[in-house]
Specification:
single chain, about 325 residues, mainly alpha, three-stranded mixed sheet, two-stranded antiparallel ribbon, globular
Length: about 325
């Protein structure tokens, strides 16, 4: 029946835990990557990026679909047992039927988007589906061990965002590097690195929300939820996750307000300028008032530390038996 072959049930995937050095490296990597795309952006380079993104999207959709099957569909009473039957595939080896379905779904979404992206009015829906799966996969495997790391990573990435939207155009007297890369430059195609959201006030127009604008504050939201769970905090007056979610929504609203007002005159906004303070500051204030700030700053989440030692080691096996 394939029940015993389900490799991912009962165990979790390794989590990459962000250290101080990794936080700085993420910002450096983002800067170098942005400049490379700016200087190399062409039809050929865009095609290379497209292929890489399509492969990443297949894997992300597969991961999230498999997660839904294992944690929702297969746990329901009366779920079809044939989904757990084993099948042997060339190259891939043995897998369960639900894993094969997830792979085919990932291929369908990614290949369809790649083929219709330039002419179908609904192509943005497929890009957003794959993009959301990419973001969720990042949040599944990348973890903040403490609030101290968030206080390093988020302000740095916010300054990066502000520099390339506001400051760089003033210094070099040209268009924003980030805006040109996000909109595809001379290729006239939007790079698959942002969610595309219809502008309700302007039919036919779209707003872009970069993956980093969701994933990076999302790391802090996930940390808050994990802290609540580890310390068994209940209720709005004691938990941190609701504060973070509310802060993110307010930060996003402020971003769209600034976009409507065209603050800075760049016809684009550094979303992290609004999202980072809206999530990080309430967390710091609430933790200070509740007496948890010292613990959050100096102690790693125990389920991350216990499985692999210090967060400095980078790769920790979350869920491995002690």
């Amino acid at each position: 029946d394939g029940e015993g072959d389900r490799s991912s049930e009962g165990e979790e995937e390794p989590a990459v835990v962000v250290s101080e050095k990794m936080a700085v490296f993420i910002v450096i990597q983002a800067t170098v990557g942005l400049l490379l795309m700016y200087f190399l952006l062409s039809k050929i380079f865009f095609t290379i990026v497209l292929v890489f993104y399509a492969l990443i999207a297949v894997q992300a959709v597969w991961v999230q679909s498999t997660f839904l099957f294992e944690n929702v569909v297969l746990k329901k009473a009366g779920s079809p047992r044939w989904l757990e039957k084993s099948v042997d595939l060339p190259i891939f080896g043995r897998c369960q039927m639900y894993q094969l379905i997830s792979l085919l779904l990932g291929l369908a979404v990614s290949v369809t988007w790649a083929c219709v992206r330039t002419w179908a009015s609904w192509a943005w829906v497929l890009q957003d589906i794959s993009g959301i799966c990419v973001i969720l996969t990042i949040l599944m495997f990348l973890k903040l061990p403490s609030l101290r790391i968030a206080c390093i990573l988020l302000p740095l990435i916010m300054m990066y965002d502000v520099f390339f939207v506001y400051i760089q155009p003033l210094i070099f007297h040209n268009d924003s590097v980030m805006k040109k890369v996000a909109t595809g430059g001379s290729t006239h195609e939007i790079l698959p690195m942002a969610l595309i959201l219809p502008n309700l006030g302007r039919p036919g127009a779209f707003a872009l929300l970069g993956y980093g604008d969701i994933a990076l504050p999302g790391l802090l939201i996930c940390y808050a939820a994990s802290y609540d769970e580890v310390h068994r905090l209940k209720g709005l007056l004691k938990t941190y996750a609701p504060i973070e979610l509310a802060g993110y929504v307010l930060g996003l609203a402020a971003t769209y307000a600034a976009l409507a007002l065209d603050i800075g005159g760049q016809q684009g906004q550094p979303a992290l300028l609004y999202l980072v303070p809206a999530t990080l500051v309430p967390m710091l204030v609430a933790a200070h008032l509740r007496g948890d700030l010292k613990d959050m700053m100096h102690a790693n989440l125990p389920f991350l530390e216990a499985r692999g030692g210090s967060a400095e080691q980078g790769l920790l096996l979350v869920g491995e038996e002690d």
